[in-house]
Amino acid sequence: MNALHTFLGMVGPWQIVVVVVLIVLLFGGKKIPELMKGLGTGIKEFKDATKGEENSHQTTKKEEAKNESSKTE
Q1: 22 vs 31: CA distance, rounded Å
Q2: Contact at 8 Å (CB) between 23 and 32?
Q3: 20 with 29: CB under 8 angstroms?
Q4: What is the 3-state secondary structure (H, E, C) of 47-69?
Q5: Which of 19, 27, 46, 73 has a beta carbon 3.0–4.6 Å from 31's, enabling a disulfide?
Q6: CA-CA distance, 58 to 64, in Å (whole number)?
Q7: CA-CA distance, 62 to 60, in Å (whole number)?
Q8: Residue 21 and residue 13 in contact, taking contact as beta carbons nearer than 8 Å
Q9: Which pLDDT belongs to residue 4?
C-alpha cells in the first residue's frame, strides 16, 4: 500500500473532478451511458461464466463420486 500511495500520491476531490471532466470532454455526455452499459454487461457475463465453471466443476465431482460408489458395489 505504501508503494501505491507513493506512486499515486493523495487523490483528492479536485483530481477526481478533473478526471470526470476529461472523460466527459473525450467521450461526450451521450456516449458515457453506452460505455457504462457495456461495462456492466461485460461484468455480468464474467460473473455468469465463473459461476458456470464452478457449477460444472461441482457436477463433475458428483459424477465422479457416483462412478466410484457404483464401482465398489
Answers
A1: 13
A2: yes
A3: no
A4: HHHHHHHHHHHHHHHHHHHHHHH
A5: 27
A6: 10
A7: 5
A8: no
A9: 64
Roughly what angle, to the nearest 10 degrees, separates helices 31-72 and 13-27? 100
- pLDDT at residue 45 tops 60: yes
Q: Is 32 exposed, middle or buried (0-12, 13-18, 19+ CB in 10 A)?
A: middle
Integer Cα distance of 63 and 69 in angstroms: 10
pLDDT at 31: 87
> For residue 38, which phi and psi values (nearest 5 degrees)?
-65, -40
Higher pLDDT, 19 or 64: 19
CA distance 2 to 12: 17
Fill in the amino acid letter for 37: K
From first CA to last CA, the distance across the chain in angstroms is 56
The three cell numbers of residue 35 are: 460505455
